[in-house]
Amino acid sequence: MQTTCKVPFFNAGKKKHWTLKQYKPVIDPITIPLISTQYTALTSAIARMNLNPSSVRYVSGGLDNRDGIGLFNNESEIWFADLPMVFPLDGPTTIAVEKSDSDLSPTCTATESDNRINTKYRLARAPVGSNKIQYNLLAKNQLFEYGGSYENFTSTVMHEMGHSAGLDHEGDVMNLMGGDNLIVTNGNVFNPYIGEDTAGGLIALYPPSPITAKEEVSVSHWRLSTKKSNSAGGFYSVHYRTRIFNAAGVELLKVCSYTKPNSDGSPITLCPEPIYKVNKGQSVKLELTYENAGKTATLPATVRYYLSTDNTISPTDTLLKTTALSFLRNNSPSTFSTALVIPNTATVLRGKNYWLGAIVDPSNLITESFEGKNATYVGIKVN
Description:
Immunoglobulin-like; five-stranded mixed beta sheet; 3 helices; 30% strand; globular
């Protein structure tokens, strides 16, 4: 969904856009020092946003020259600040806010976009009283989605940079502009990514550049579950884990009671990831989400499905199936199930954990900017 201006008889209904197709923020050196994990995560977010196939570019403006951080000072800036309780959902439950000067323009044209990250993002969940923002990509178990207490800073900044370019919140599909992080995870490595819906929205605002546009496909163990309202009168998408079903389409039982709580709930430390109970020789259906966030609207790709002894899916694992899929960039990520059979062999041991997973484009026939989002997993335990 694209952002529209709302000032009656001035610019109401016009789409937010930039004449110069570039968002170039400067970074506050006081709250985000050059040698800090925050700065590294921020520059990573800028680089990942540039994987989008549109003609808009994200460029770091470097550190601010100490002329003062603030709104509407003719300079796009990113900094940490204590966010006030403006709306009922703001304050400790708001992680970041973007503010642009587009509403001051009769054509809804932006020349400045400021992003403030909340220093008081202190949700009620443990550890009580601490800021719940995580800055690295190397600690999956710190993330709320995987049993920890924290939201990822890179994902948060990418979301706000989507607002900077002219994208609004979205509740109808799994996407970066929703209420949950958009990440692909394989093993203990997770990667924030832009996703199909956001790529499509940017293309609608800024048609693809033949110079910068690349192909980008992905596979994830997350899916759209529902949507929730936000303080601005719109909706956020809510993302839940993908599932494993039996041949009749009934979700299998889990080893432990995995339930993703709301953002202010307790960490899911006792059951950080779903693990499904399966039998040797059983026919199952593995649900995953496939996205095309690249320059070509219809892109054929090979997908291989594996049984692995760990949660890092790789070509050396046991191959179960190879399929050819058509990845459609239609602003709606494709979540569906693929029929697989659990091997009934002596090497598959009862009572042991395994992982079913997929690799998209395993031979790297598609030229992508980033390959770190092409494999994922779902856990199983053989009865």
